Amino acid sequence: MYKNIVKKEKVELKNLVAYQEGQVVSKTLVQNDYVSVTLFSFDKGEEISTHASGGDAMVTVLEGTGKFTIGGDVFILKEGETIIMPKDVPHAVYGQEKFKMELVVSF
Questions:
Q1: What is the Cα–Cα distance from 43 to 33, expressed in whole angstroms?
Q2: What's the angle, vertex CA 47, arms to CA 88 and CA 75, rounded to 5?
Q3: pLDDT tens over the chain, length 107 residues
Q4: Which candidate, 79, 35, 30, places its Cα nearest to that of 56?
Q5: Global confidence as pTM
Q6: Per CATH, is 13-106 categorized as 2.60.120.10?
């Protein structure tokens, strides 16, 4: 089920995805009908524009600071903080500075 990650080895998730200048980078760890787990890195000023998800989406910031707009409300999250973006509620993500996050979507 898991891919792009070594099993039975201690890892820091933030080290599994690298920054790239001017880009949002993603690395999928799990993708199936029930759950999706993806790591992201955002260069400062990069974003994922407003969209909605078919499942509840839980984000944990692994490094840096990101801005999350969820249903029109704005949240600034720093390393170690988590928020849930509810199913079917429009949301967007912006790199307030370079940052990395883990996204877990449950369908």
A1: 30
A2: 65
A3: 899 999 999 999 999 999 999 999 999 999 999 999 999 999 999 999 999 999 999 999 999 999 999 999 999 999 999 999 999 999 999 999 999 999 999 99
A4: 35
A5: 0.96
A6: yes
